[in-house]
Amino acid sequence: MHIFKTNHKVIVKYAGLLYSSPDWSWDSFINREVLHREVLNDIQSITADSLLAHDLEQLCTPIANQEIWASGVTYMRSKDARMEESKDAGGGDFYARVYSAKRPELFFKSSAYRAVGSGGTVRIRKDSEWNVPEPELVLFICSAGTIEGYMIGNDMSSRDIEGENPLYLPQAKSYDGAAAVGPCLYVPATPISPDTEIQIEIWRGDVKVFVDAILISRMKRTHKELAHYLFMEMSFPAGVYLMTGTGIVPPDSFTLNYGDVIHITISNIGTLTNQVGK
Ligand code: DO4
Ligand code: MG
To answer: What pTM was computed for the model?
Structure first.
């Protein structure tokens, strides 16, 4: 099932039918253990409404009081790219160590008001000249610490700032419009398949300037392990979103330009589309 957020409604799409109720509000609706079963129960008592299809044309960012956190260096490609970009600063070793360490890298990415949804504008920093999108599977973990759903995420990153010194990571990763999440919350009956593919296309006008794909099975760590570390000493009363890291990094010659359009597709979830703006 897929759960969408609009200005005034929470809409569930299940088996091709659309459901909504005035009683549903984002935080309390999604923040439940065994969410799939709970929502099935909710929709049993209401009638499907095909007119809700119009509301789906005006989607909001599927977030309310959730923070967005991120994991790093969870794929070999991310480790290699970051070792290369920070080798002059002597930072390369940090990335090799965190890739094989028991404790994962976790960092705060965005509050809800700084994030954008599908169709929103992602930004590149004015003080950076080397910027890339990071296409990532996002976990929704409810306040009890269990993984209940998935979204698509873009962890926009300034590679020159991050490469200059690993201590600059918060500036390379967190600024207005640095996080995109959407287009909906995907809530399957069982955990997402390891064969799930993440695909990215970047368009500059009518030219496709970058395309790549990776299976989530290439990730070094498990989703449960990341959730476990995140919840070890922190509580999230409305649940939390956790980006799981990128396995796709464009070649070093590539940087985003203003106007580029980024499409990130994850099997069974949908496509997150954002334009790069100022
Ligand atoms: O350590 C830097 C950030 C890594 C990251 O965002 C990723 O691997 O996706
Ligand atoms: Mg990332």
So the answer is: 0.97
